[in-house]
Structure formats: structure tokens, C-alpha cells
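User: Sequence in, structure out. Go.
Assistant: Echoing your sequence, followed by the C-alpha cells.
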Amino acid sequence: MDWVEPAKAWELLGACLNLVGTERVFLDKGLGRILAQEVVSTRDIPSEDRALRDGYALGRLQDPGKPLAVLGQSLAGRPWDQELRGDGAVGVRTGAVVPPGTLGIVPKEEVEEAPDGAWVRLKGEPPLKDSHIGRKGHLVRTGSRLLAPGTKLGPAELSLLAAAGVGQVMVGKRPRVLFLPTGSELVGLSKLLGEGQSFVSHAWYLAWRTEEEGAQGEVHEPVPDLEEEIWGAIQEAVEMAHLVVTTGGTGPSDRDLVCRVLLSHGARVIFRHMPIRPGGTVSAFLVSSTPVIALPGGAGGVGLGCELLLAPSVRTLQGEQDPGPRWIKCTAPRELQRDPVCHRFLEAWLRVEEGMLCAELVPRDFGGGGLVPLRGHGWIHVPPGQGSLEQGEKAGMLLGKCTGRLLQQSQEARGL
């Protein structure tokens, strides 16, 4: 059997994926979408010189020690547009347009004010040139880049676009992903459970997980362990979806038919199997140019295959800039035995200890064990080799769920 290393498997699959298309959406519908084109500012921000403090706008003073007549007020939305004289002051509020001729702004607490507000006197030195003034375009210049293609639009990105007056954006279309749970023992959630049967759950986990990443997930009714039924379902699915995912039927037994059916009908092999535990029988194919990811039936292999291959595929189909698996660095919580051949992935939580992120293995007896593809935040990676990964030794952690991007950016920002 030819094994493909996990990183190589994603490289091979990623090369078969393309942006599914673009569409224009209003900004209030852009949350979580992937930007499909560069956005540049069409205006200076701010569009005029603005006050950065509450206080008084002053011109070039003739005698800084003398009282200055208060000529008026420049307020947000009601600017003072007369030329500022050297013997006068104009009250300003933060964000207000700076009057013409302003040298600088002196904060309110640095002046003595007349009881009737008619004059002010400086308590100290006159303000330096441009003091507490945000000049036109000091935040954003016309023509400067706001966001690059491939950016995922979160609250911060959308707020930036709103501040620049951008009302619509071009984004990647949401890919359609079809999930085919295979196994004669499986029944849909709306059916009665018979003896020896199980409800479909892993395929729904994958559908919900891909929807977190922006896809439109749809779960097919369970497909029985019959070659003609499996092939018919795959043929129908590849005509309807941008990506097809099967669960179950990837093992070496006579009843594991999915990979056998794909090969016998001429599907192009992208890769077969990875030296990983769990989920070593994960495979990928092309059928009529549509990628088909074949995941095993076990919970661990489904969860791991999702984050190594499926979630990155969904991000790629939408044009995300850095779509690959989400990795951070952590320290081994205890001694972890290496496998001579396989990459071990051990499910783990992240917790905060003394202000730092620490990884902790999910106990085997934790509720739902064997039923849920991922209960923690991801998996600690134990590379193959001899001996052990020692407690406290640096290790990689593959992240799952939508916490992945946030945690990765947090680590990068802190230089970890």
C-alpha cells in the first residue's frame, strides 16, 4: 500500500480545487464570506482635518499670555468655517472639523476659561503645530488598499469597509457539499431504529462543520452496502455538488465497498490512505472533475479527515487566502509514545493557565467517546519515530472548529 504523508495529501487534493465562482453581496450579508477582489478606498479618511481632543483650536498667536476671545464652536456636523484669527479661539469637540487657519488644538484642561465662556487663557505654552489634529487622510488615503482578496470578512473587516463607505463586496460563492453516509446499518434521523442499526450522525457533523466554514452542506439518505447503489449515489452527487464526501466503507474488508466502487468505475486517484491514527484509510478521488473525499466510518477518522482535508477544501473553494489545515504550537502535557510508522493524533482541549494557552488531552472516558468526531479543540500531533515526545516538549496541534483561525492569529500576533 502506498501511503501519502498528511501534508502531501492536502497538497494533492488542494491542487484539484478551484474557486466555485463569485457574487456581489451587501455588507450586512458579508459576515463570514471570503473577499474575492481587492478593495481600495475611494476617499480620504477623514475627509477633512479633524480634532482629536476636546478643547480649543488656536491660530498663530500674537501674545500667548493674553486672553483669547472665544469666537464660536466647531461641532461634529456643524463646523466653524471662518478663518481663525490669531487673537481668537474656537471651541472644538473630538471629531469636529478643524477651523481654517488652525495651528494646533489645546486640550480643555490646559486653559483657563472665563465664567461666561467669552474668553480663554493658556495655562502653559502654546500648542505645537498640528497638536491633537488628525489631518485629512491620516487614517486612510484615497487609493490605498483596505483589504486583500482571500480575506475572511469578520466584524473588524466589515466595520473597516463600512467606515470607508463600501456598501457591497464581491465574495466567493458558497460551495455546495454533498455527504453520502454509507452502510446498511445506518438509518436517517426521521426513521425508526431497528435492531443492530445506528442513526446517521457523523455525516451531519461534517455538514454542520462545513457550514461553519461557509459551505452549503446537504446530507443524503444512507446508502446501503451495495455496489450499484453506492455508484449511483456518487454519480448523482457529483452532478449536483462542488465537493462530495462519503463516510464509511474505506477499510480492507469485503464489505468496505466505497474505494473499490470508485476504482472499478474509473475514478482518478488523488491519493490512497495516509499513515495516521485514527483514520488511516482516508482517500480522495476525482469523478467527472469533482473531488470525492472518502472518509472512514469511525468518529476519530471523520473528525481528523475533516480538519486535514474537508475544511481546507471548503475554504479553498471560496477563495480564502490561507485555506490549509490550522496548526498552532503547544507543549506536550505528558510523555506521548511515538509510533514507528504512523502520525498519532491525540484529541485535546486548550485551556488558559497563567495567561498562556495549554493543551490537555481529552480523557478516554469523557462523555460521548467514540460517538463524536471532535469533542475537544483539536489534536496534538505526535510524529512517527522511535521513543517518545517528552512532557513539555514542543508539539504541533491541529485545530478544529471555527476557533482554529482565531487561535492561530492569536499565536502569530504574540510571536509564538
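User: And one key feature?
Assistant: Residues 411-416 have pLDDT under 50 and may be disordered.
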